[in-house]
Write a structure and sequence with these properties.
By secondary structure, the protein is of the alpha/beta class. The chain has 10 helices and 7 strands. Helix 1 crosses helix 5 (108-116), helix 7 crosses helix 9 and helix 7 (150-160) crosses helix 10 (195-204). The modification 4-aspartylphosphate is found at residue 54.
Length: 211
């Protein structure tokens, strides 16, 4: 059985986020935590395959949990669910390992659609967030784009679909070291540093579904 986790201190928000997860993934057992400490306990009890994490929690920042899940390497979908769309919150979360960023002030139907897109390899990003990231990418594209090799494009596609290093290596039929080398090359060529940015680039290149 797959496991999901919602970390949210506001009861009303936690309730509808849990409802959305159960609607999109009916076979998923969803746990709920209201603070960083409870989130750590939930992660230790059963590593989730998907987590929705608020950033502003009573006893700390959700980024602490994002780092824990990212370093564990067993949670392919680590998604921020917050009201903050500014760079001060967005980029630290992505650098910590978040693979998606959803704003809670958008319609429930939009959140549901974003989560359904995960199965198709679409990055779960709210439109405002995606537009901000694309503007940043456009500003940074001061040098001609370096083309990716077929194997690098394959790696980028797998990363965008939520595959972790062991899964990438197994799918491609290569060692973990070789797969890690491909990933590093892709990140260097595209001038990116997070899985969410990789998903955006994969979408831009037409390797996965549009945002």
């Amino acid at each position: 059985m797959q496991h999901g986790l919602v970390v949210e201190d506001l009861e009303a928000s936690a309730a509808w986020l849990c409802d959305v997860l159960e609607e999109v993934f009916p076979e998923m057992a969803v746990a709920q935590a209201g603070c960083v400490a409870e989130g750590r306990q939930a992660i230790e009890a059963c590593t989730p395959q998907l987590a929705l994490i608020d950033l502003g929690l009573p006893d700390g920042s959700g980024i602490e949990l994002i780092r824990q899940l990212a370093h564990g390497g067993q949670t392919p979908h680590i998604i921020v669910s917050t009201i903050y769309a500014d760079d001060r919150h967005l980029f630290p979360a992505l650098r910590a390992g978040a693979t998606g960023y959803l704003l809670k002030d958008q319609a429930r139907e939009r959140v549901t659609k974003s989560l359904r897109g995960i199965a198709a390899g679409e990055p779960p990003l709210s439109p405002r967030v995606a537009q901000r990231l694309l503007r940043i990418f456009a500003q940074e594209q001061t040098e001609p784009e370096v083309p990716l090799s077929p194997r690098e494009r394959e790696v980028l596609t797998l990363i965008a679909k939520g595959f972790r290093l062991p899964d990438v290596a197994e799918t491609m039929g290569v060692t973990r070291n070789t797969a890690a080398g491909y990933i590093k090359a892709v990140y260097r060529k595209l001038n990116i540093s997070s899985r969410a940015e990789a998903a955006l680039e994969a979408s831009r290149l037409g390797l996965v579904g549009d945002l």
